[in-house]
């Protein structure tokens, strides 16, 4: 039952994330990436908790996948934000 709840939350989060990103115009993707870092950080903490919960092999594997993807998202978001801020620095 707990696994079903975790999978349901994962699918709903995935669906909402895709809907959010596809409805945003491309000119707003950089500021959106900066704002999504906080959400990705929360996701990363939840994924770490799921991966280390010891609730089963499937939960651990899904938690590890979530940790990997959230980490990529956070690092990429910071890189994009850094490049965006570099455009406004004086030379």
UniProtKB/TrEMBL annotation:
Topology class, membrane: Multi-pass membrane protein
Catalytic activities: NAD(+) + NADPH + H(+)(in) = NADH + NADP(+) + H(+)(out)
A Gene Ontology biological process term: NADPH regeneration
Subcellular location: Cell inner membrane
Pfam family, one: PNTB_4TM
GO function terms (MF aspect): NADP binding; proton-translocating NAD(P)+ transhydrogenase activity
GO cellular component: plasma membrane
Known EC number: 7.1.1.1
Domain NAD(P) transhydrogenase alpha subunit C-terminal residues, every copy: 7-90
Residue stretches spanning the membrane: 57-81
Keyword annotations of the record: Cell inner membrane, Cell membrane, Membrane, NAD, NADP, Translocase, Transmembrane, Transmembrane helix
Biological function: The transhydrogenation between NADH and NADP is coupled to respiration and ATP hydrolysis and functions as a proton pump across the membrane.
This protein's name: proton-translocating NAD(P)(+) transhydrogenase
Organism: Ferrimonas marina
